[in-house]
Amino acid sequence: MKWFARPSRLRAAGMLGMNERNIGYIGEYNPRRNYPLVDNKLLTKQAAEQRGIPVPALYGVIRYQHEVNAVLDVLAGREEFVIKPAQGSGGKGILVVVGRRGDRFIKSSGREIDAADVCRHVSNILAGLHSLGGRNDCAMIEALIDFDPVLASYSHEGVPDIRVIAFKGVPVMAMMRCATHASDGKANLHQGAVGVGIDIGSGRSVRAVQNDILIDAHPDTGACFADLVIPHWERVLDLAASCVEMTGLGYLGADVVLDRECGPMLLELNARPGLAIQVANQTGLRNRLTLAAAIAARAKGHDERIALARAQFGEAG
Amino acid sequence: MLSTRVRIELVAATLILVGVGLMVYKVFFLGFPLLPGEYRDVWTIESKISFRPGDGPVEADLTLPSELAGWVVLDEHFASSGFGFTVTQDETRRATWTRSELAEPATLYYKLQAYRQNPRELEQRDVPALAVPLLTADQRAAMLRLIEVLEAKSSDRTSFTQLLIRALDSRTTDPDGRFLLSTWDEDSGDVLLLTLALAEIPATALRGVRLEDGRRRQTLSTLLEIHDGERWQVFDPRTGQAGLPEDFFIWQRSEDAVLNVSGARNSRLEFALVSNSLPSRSVLAMEQRSGRYALLDFSIYALPVEQQGVFKGLLLIPVAALVVVIMRLLVGVKTSGTFMPILIAIAFIQTTLLLGLAIFLGLVAAGLWIRGWLSHMNLLLVSRISAVVIVVIFLMSALALTSYRLGLDQVLSVTFFPVIILAWTIERMSILWEEEGPHEVLVQGSGSLLVATLAYLAMSNRLASHLTFNFPELTLTLLGLILLLGKYTGYRLTELYRFRAMGDKP
User: Fold this and answer.
1) Would the pTM of this model clear 0.90, i.e. be above it?
2) How many inter-chain contacts (A to B, CB under 8 Å) are there?
């Protein structure tokens, strides 16, 4: 592999660069006033529930410092849960507890922490440590996703999620993000999680990439990505496309998780989805975005947009 | 309706053109130096008028020099204790000192500073009417013979004048020349002028000072100026050399006396000369005081020297901002905090680069260690950061004190590091370490330091500081560039690396 790609080659592949994404799509199609709905996970969750979009159950919200100890009441009797800042970004400040041992909590990585650690974590969230610009924040306590066993072998110590980029209500590109030992159970690609490109048409895997390098199998579990098919694919696309209508953002990334019981659920939305999805799919976003704009102009409704997208962007198409 | 892109491009192009245009104007029309390395020779010419007391009221009248042949007078001073003093301006400027009576010898001073902005020829002027010289019969006969001989040898007025100068040289062998010289007891200047007048060549004397660094008791020198039919030309009456010498400061363009003193005896006019090589910008600063150019009046030179220093620093920040924009938008370097690198770079300017880097790394490392210890204390975020702020201040004081004891003055400047920024950096780095591991800390930390170092190099560059200070309008140009870069949609350099796996087969 070469050290650098030639710009002409990237352009030929239709790769979207950070600058073009920021100016041409985020700046152009995402009105600033609609950001809070996306940046604040609590607002996203409420809006999604109103529209009947499934989301993980909310156990409680801690808004003020004096309530911090109340977190223990919320957690009473709960074996597994997730605490996250409502306005965090890039997966910062998310505490995943998968079990309890007496008074102590077991994190997804297997490390044990005590109640004081949990309280400190909540307190840090409230002070805005993990939020954009250090704003005061609130902490959400959510149900842990009991993820679909079909995907279990593709993730190590964490929940795999599916990122779908939608433009004007048209699903454009998708990727599954699998946690690895290197990513410490988090699904962030720049921390070493694996990104698996997913075919929009079929929900099958296209290519997998870790740290910008193409791979065949999960480095920890050894599961081969070629066999991967995302269950309930139709529903995942439907969910992602609905979010465009919900938020009024033209260009967004929807993070969807597959629950064993409830099927696809919306985890969070992102107004500034990253670009690594292009490497995982081995194709650029730019051409697809142009095509998606045409589809959006042509299609009569939500379902037709998805159908056209599947035909257009699917491997068969 | 124009698209935002075109609008931005128009605005940016206008800004860039205005900035560059003003700069070009200042360089070519106001004589601002484009490069920092330029120094100007500024001459301080002190004229000393001394005389002995006579009877009754005293009046000393000095013709003041006018700015000719590209010379610019920066500053003048008159010293006239006990004398009434006026400066009058009709055809030429004149300074007049008056006193009702004088008991002791007196000395008056007129000092000026001048430099030759753009050396050029002497300004042309009208040809005066020729006056027929008053001569004795033998003088006239000798002159006519001389003129006849020289006219036969010469082709035009220029060569005639040069031949004449040689013929009236003190070493001349020409009999008529020798005769003419013997009938005038003063120097040959008057003979030259009279002969030229008889030959119907308009000519005048050019009075001035020969510039010689460190010279005292210099007296006025005379050059010869003739009209060759088309234009005025200057000759050295001793050597016949044509052209205005570089080292000649013109005082007056006629043979009239420069100094007239009445009511006193033994008046003398002497000059003392000093040359200073000054950076062009100081010269301009001095020139500004004469307030002739509106653009200069609005320049930074109009400010007191202290404020100039502040602006010098402020005007460099856009340069650093451009570096940050380039590194982030074109290269794609990750930094911790968008403009943090600029603040670090400003601190580096005070401490010098290597020392600054060492201090920064030292402080952040120590801060991280202490922050790690503080995190066990289970404190609230705000008070934890405040604690880090105080610890950082303490570390800085300790460093400053130790270095003072060791006699290292430079380290004292650690105080220029922005404490709050440093504390936040430590806090963020520590969080980053916990959440994303040391690798990310290394990436963002070294990114910040790389950009800070480049910003420092750009800001401490002599050319950059010269340009931003002398041409503050270039800030508009920088703004235009930054606006344009804000619309750059191409790939970042790091993306070429990041997307290098495109099209590869695993």
Assistant:
1) no
2) 97
